[in-house]
Amino acid sequence: MTISTHTLVYTRVHTATHLTEVILGAIGDILADLGIAYSDFTRGWEQNENAIQAWITEGSLDQVVLECHQPSGTVDPVIEFPVAYTTTGAGDAEFTASRARLARFRAKLDRVPAGTTYRLFCTFAGRPHTPQPGWSPGTRASTDGLRGITFGTLGRAPHASAGMRYLHS
Amino acid sequence: MLRSRTIAAAPVRSASVTWQVITDLVADTVAASAALARSDAEQAMEVAAPIGRMLIAGGHLDRCPLTLVAGLVHCEIGTVSGTAALSAEENLSPIPGAASATTFTIHLPAPDPFAVVVAEVAAGHPRLSDVLPLAPEARSAAGTGSLVDMNALRKEVAGR
């Protein structure tokens, strides 16, 4: 019998792994809730997982952005997942996720028309970052005219936390 | 007998790595049967991987485990995420009871909002199901795992 126990030692990689899964899990839930086809999202899962984890580990990632592109050309809603880093890396050894609150929030999301697609962006706020496979420069759609609702903290870890902001018309 | 196994997910492992650990556990268990092929289990888990990773990342597998049914094996396999994952105790050894199995099914959970997608994925491989498995007691009563037909025995005793 192979029984293993993980010890209570945590690093920046643990923080990055935790926040990456919290963000990607939330995006998956939202795409499924909105009825947006996400086969590309699942197909590129490992690539996205590796990239976001690497960028959080090196502290370069500013936010992950999910844009919903409606057939009319309108980009609505836009969901931002900002990452905030703690300078000390100290704090409680707590890895939390607000999943129950997210489920309640998802129930209030505006519906989108059939045929709506999505685009995923990562922004860096000018910080240098290591290139990652499958990711190339892009331009975000304007969010002018969209109203923002701040969800607050989505996930928290010793070295960083991830929030969520919902922008819609 | 209903068994359960818990696998540490984030922050210990990414969703992709966690799914691979679950895949190995399922495949190792199924491989104990001379009548079943490890590769069959691996193929089924590969088909389910896209939705499996999302269920792990979203924390759904923390609450709604998948279930492996193979011979005498009836095992719920779930995950633990967050702080608790750091101190989780794992048993990654093959689940005992599959040696006599002639078939197996991996029952995938279908939590909201993934019910439709899980059903589509389950339809993609004959070893996958999106239907909750019968409890072990019910399977025994149905004659799939018990050496004694309890219903027939009760009727016989009642008739005396």
Walkthrough of the structure:
The complex is a heterodimer of chains A (169) and B (160). Chain A has helices spanning 12-34, 39-43, 45-57, 99-106, and strands at 3-5, 63-69, 75-85, 96-97, 117-123, 147-156, 160-168. By secondary structure, chain A is an alpha+beta fold. Chain A has a six-stranded antiparallel β-sheet. The relative contact order of chain A is 0.26. Chain B has 160 residues and is an alpha/beta fold. Chain B has one domain (2-158). Chain B contains six helices and six strands. Chain B has helices at 15-30, 38-57, 60-63, 115-122, 136-141, 150-158, and strands at residues 2-8, 66-70, 73-80, 89-91, 104-107, 128-129. Chain B has a five-stranded mixed β-sheet with strand order 1-3-2-5-6. Chains A and B meet through strand 1, helix 1, helix 2, helix 3 and strand 4 of A and helix 2 and strand 4 of B.
How many whole angstroms does the radius of gyration of chain B measure?
A: 17 Å
| Class of secondary structure makeup of chain A | alpha+beta
Order of strands, main sheet of chain A, comes to: 4-6-7-3-2-5
Could you state the oligomeric state of the chains shown?
heterodimer
Number of strands of chain B: 6
Question: Which series of helices and strands of chain A comes N to C?
Answer: EHHHEEEHEEE
Instruction: Give the strand line-up of the largest sheet of chain B.
Output: 1-3-2-5-6
